[in-house]
Amino acid sequence: QGENLLYCFEVAPAQPALTQVTQCRTEGSTRGLAAVPRLALDVMACEVLRVLQLTDTALVPVSYLVPRKSVQEFHEDLFPDCTGMLPATNAQGWWAGDSQQVGIIQGGVLAGGIATAPCSPLCSMQVGRVSLHPARRPTETFMSPIIAGTGPTNTGHTDTGTGHTDADTGHTDADQTSGYSSPSSLASPSSAATSLSASTGPSSGFASSPSQKSLQSILGEQAVGWLGVPEWGGFRALTHPSPAPGPSSRFRHAQGRVLHRDHHLTNLRGLSLTTPGECDGFCANHQRVALPLLSAGGQIAVLELSKPGRLPDAAVPTIQNGAAVADLTWDPFDPRRLAVAGEDAKIRLWRIPEGGLQETLLEPEAILRGHTEKIYSIRFHPTASDLLVSSSYDMTVRIWELSAGREVLCLQGHTDQIFSMAWSPDGKKLATVSKDGRIRLYEPRRSSQPQQEGPGPEGGRGARLVWVCGGDHLLVSGFDSRSERRILLYRAQALPEGPLSVLGLDVAPSTLLPFYDEDTSVVFLTGKGDTRVFLYEVTPEPPYFLECNSFTSSEPHKGFVFLPKTACEVREVEFA
User: Fold this and answer.
1) For residue 526, what is the domain's CATH number?
2) For tag attachment on the chain, is the N or C end more exposed, with fewer CB atoms within 10 Å?
3) Same domain membership, residue 458 and residue 538
4) 3-class secondary-structure state, position 567
């Protein structure tokens, strides 16, 4: 009570006893919750559960649906036997030792009213069977005997031996007794709940029963495209096959939280939103953030993170780069040095004064020349100072020694646009993924030619890669031939063998940007223009991807970067 998150767990007799399936964020705080009886579900829409949330001012229905190709027929496997509405015995019979079970509500019927769904093994008696099919809704109900002295006794004949009402006095419409005219009457155009988990993964699932196959496997059945859900609530299950319930992530309950506005930098003006897809859009270190601006000349704003709040309306001091910005990154060992790749095929190194920019910078510390066409991206070496790598439209990857201001090596072997590149954590290897559908692995101190090549993501819409699992594996984000966004896991020493695992996420136009936390093995994935951040724990053993809670923001991302771990509030168990 008082919260706005609804959690859904699978309960199993073996470990892990509790496995999270999904969670749903509601608009209002919860004052009470109640599950709607199964007779009120919209079975033709494959609704398997409906919860009523009581808020301060409203009663909000939250619906859970299973996607199916056809919603024109009754799906018996989704609706197993459930408890009926007629008692099996009365109080006197129970005290006398009668242990008959309540009748079973059958999920499906054949022509002529013959029940087809099997009865649960827990049932020792099958009486009063009714169907959940809308055309065969039950009408027979039970009315308890009137207690003597509390009201009139002539309201209808009751058989005290069985407690069943007469057919002509106890019959009521099931929809009326449940308080609903029909399940579909609760739907409304307004959104009552927002799903935070749109896919079932290795950590998700529903409890199964002897009379039905697991809903986890049902949710993973093949289908074509997306299936709609009512706007007022529910979750979407992706249509690619989902693994069976298995191990769950230690960080599956991680929660993303937007810090208080006192920590925000606001009134940002004139930001450039046209940086190439290979660029993260901006960059940050533990002291400051660099933001490309839309104005001519490749201007870059540098803001101090130690001075949050509203920026003045007047113009702030900037870096005059002299060419449109293609990519930019901070030196991990020198928080005052900023490397900027321009569309003029040059890399400029800028040094920020102590305390931040007080006036416009016009002259860079150094200019690196060598590429013949526009530069895609630049990356500093993770372990050695004064080493920078860059990729360009000239289909070369060049390594620069900044202390000497010169190129020291040119890596060859690419035949098309280079989407992304990444140093291994130990700095020995460099991996690239390109538009030709190939992943290449270099050891620059040994050769300028790739040491390994393997198949990458299909399609040429974009891709990113990052080293995971201690540098033994590569995680690549990209698209398939149908434009579904997916992530692929490779063993770094066996790229020609192809991916160990492929996980489809959703369909969206922007490339997923992966950010990997080495300490927890959690990868964060989101794209420009997205509102959702996916979280997965990556393991070197099956099932490889363990789903964690995703985070949804109120506005689309224009860019997304991670601060160094030293910026985390460890006393609040903040890890990213």
Assistant:
1) 2.130.10.10
2) N
3) yes
4) helix
Closest CA to 219 of 228, 210, 206: 206
Do 429 and 335 share a structural domain? no
pLDDT tens digit at each of 576 positions of the chain: 888 888 888 888 888 888 877 778 887 888 898 988 877 788 778 888 888 889 888 888 888 888 776 666 777 777 776 666 777 777 877 888 776 665 555 444 333 333 333 433 333 344 445 566 666 666 666 666 666 554 444 444 444 444 444 434 444 443 333 333 333 333 333 333 333 333 333 333 333 333 333 434 444 333 322 323 233 333 232 333 344 456 888 888 888 888 888 888 888 888 887 777 778 888 999 899 999 988 877 899 999 988 888 888 888 889 999 999 999 999 999 999 999 999 999 999 999 998 888 898 999 999 999 999 999 899 999 999 999 999 999 999 999 999 999 999 999 999 999 999 999 999 999 999 999 999 999 999 999 999 999 999 987 789 999 999 999 999 999 998 888 899 999 999 999 999 999 999 988 888 999 999 999 999 999 988 888 999 999 999 999 999 998 888 888 878 778 888 888 888 888 888
Residue 104 lies in a domain: no
Tokens representing residue 351 in the block: 């040094």
| Cβ atoms of 457 and 479 closer than 8 Å | yes
Cα 162 to chain centroid, rounded: 52
Specify whether the CB–CB gap between 549 and 23 falls below 8 A: yes
564 within some domain: no
Query: Could you tell me if 406 and 433 lie in one domain?
Result: no
Closest to 537 (Cα-Cα) out of 239, 254, 145: 254
Cβ within 8 Å of residue 222, ≥6 positions away: 239, 240, 241
User: Sheet of 464-468: strands edge to edge?
Assistant: 464-468, 473-479, 484-491, 501-507
Choosing from 266, 294, 327, the residue where a domain stops is 266
Go through the chain and tell me how many residues it has.
576
Distance CA 557, CA 127 (A): 57
Q: Which residue has the tokens 């031996």?
A: 161
Tell me if residue 284 falls in helix, strand or coil.
strand
Cis ω for the linkage preceding 543 (within 30 of 0)? yes
Of 418, 461, 459, nearest to 442 (Cα)? Answer: 418
Q: Distance between CA 256 and CA 3 in Å, rounded?
A: 15
* Nearest Cα to Cα of residue 63 among 234, 197, 235: 234
Number of domains the chain is built from? 3
In a domain, 236, yes or no: no
CB 502 within 8 A of CB 486: yes
From 221, 242, 266, the end of a domain falls on 266
